[in-house]
Design brief:
The protein is of the alpha/beta class. The protein has helices spanning 37-47, 62-73, 124-127, 139-143, 145-160, 178-188, 199-206, 212-223, 270-284, 287-301, 313-322; strands at residues 6-9, 13-17, 31-35, 52-59, 81-84, 90-95, 104-108, 133-137, 164-168, 194-198, 227-236, 241-250, 253-258, 262-263, 328-329.
Length: 330
């Protein structure tokens, strides 16, 4: 693994999307993208120059190799990928919507190679050697009991090694109930430094409604983690533009920031780009820088088709410097 890398752990899929806002029922063509929350985070980090490695399990077939080639092409180290002679790569069908029709997703991921992993094959002390942080999300433990065990072992090993650990709640109603997502987060909380969630996820999973600055301290107190980051996407005008309002709460420090406005070309992957930016800013400077980078990177991502934030550091810095960030600290 690259020295001082941020390591992410999770499943990847092939995403298939009809072009030109078509529905699956009418299209004869599907655009192919690579997707997966933790891989999205890894790619976004690599694109802004962070050493990053992705750990996963893939089928040893052309689709699995397509994922790895795509990840490597964006600068992500993939030596931690386990190859499987059986299982499959999950599929994600996405219909991009335009108001009043919402964007819709259809998953076909049952019995994927990742969901059938053996937790014992991952040598976490070796995979995390020289790293400075580990990131995973609530999608991983929701996929199977084996994945839940692997996530717990990864976070535990990272905590024992003194790495920063982060966990994006990433609640998916198609993978489990709010109660199951809450139980998973509560079980993993002793090994989590930073928990990231949207305001909608905090409400659905923990019953905490309100503005990010209200929800973040309440969720931090409930889980007992060091830091909680809550963000909310706010639609502007006719809904074709939006901005992201976010808050990071740690002990007696509360930092808030609003991102620049952005166009909603493709909403998927925006939260992952935000997580990547926040982690980079936090680890290199402070939470305020994290919120600024996260807001800028999420804004840029949502102007780009596909799940990956195909961006560069110069345009991120330019957006941070010319964007209107309303940051507060207390």
């Amino acid at each position: 693994m690259p020295t001082r890398a941020i390591v992410t752990f999770g499943e990847a899929m092939v995403r298939l999307t009809p072009p030109n806002l078509q529905r699956i029922e009418q299209t004869s063509v599907l655009d192919l993208y690579i997707a997966g929350a933790e891989l999205n985070v890894a790619v976004a980090l690599a694109r802004i120059g962070e050493p990053v490695a992705w750990v996963s399990r893939l089928p040893d077939n052309p689709l699995g190799r397509r994922v790895v080639l795509h990840a490597r092409g964006h600068g992500v180290a993939t030596e931690g990928v386990e190859w499987s002679s059986d299982g499959r790569l999950g599929l994600l069908f996405v219909e991009l919507g335009s108001r009043p029709r919402a964007t819709a997703s259809l998953y076909d991921r049952a019995e994927s190679a990742f969901a059938q992993l053996d937790p014992g094959v991952f040598d976490w002390p070796a995979l995390l050697d020289g790293a400075r942080a580990l990131h995973t999300s609530g999608i991983t433990p929701a996929l199977s009991p084996a994945c839940a065990q692997a996530a717990a072992e990864a976070l535990g090993a990272a905590r024992e090694a003194g790495l920063h650990t982060s966990y994006d709640l990433n609640f998916r109603a198609r993978l489990g109930t709010p109660g199951q997502a809450r139980a998973a987060a509560e079980a993993l909380a002793p090994s989590i430094d930073t928990l990231i969630a949207s305001a909608g996820e905090a409400a659905a999973v923990f019953g905490l409604d309100g503005e990010p600055a209200e929800v973040a301290p309440a969720l931090r107190e409930r889980l007992g983690v060091t830091r909680v980051v809550i963000s909310r996407r706010i639609d502007i005008g006719d809904g074709l533009q939006a901005r992201r309002s976010a808050c990071a709460c740690a002990d007696h420090e509360v930092v808030q920031a609003d991102s620049p406005e952005f166009a909603l070309v493709d909403p998927l992957g925006g939260g992952d780009a935000f997580s990547a930016g926040f982690l980079s800013g936090l680890l290199n400077e402070d939470p305020k820088r994290g919120l600024e980078l996260g807001g800028a990177m999420a804004a840029l991502k949502q102007s780009i088709p596909g799940d990956f934030a195909i961006i560069d550091p110069a345009e991120v810095d330019e957006l941070v410097h010319r964007g209107v960030f309303a940051g507060t600290r207390r």
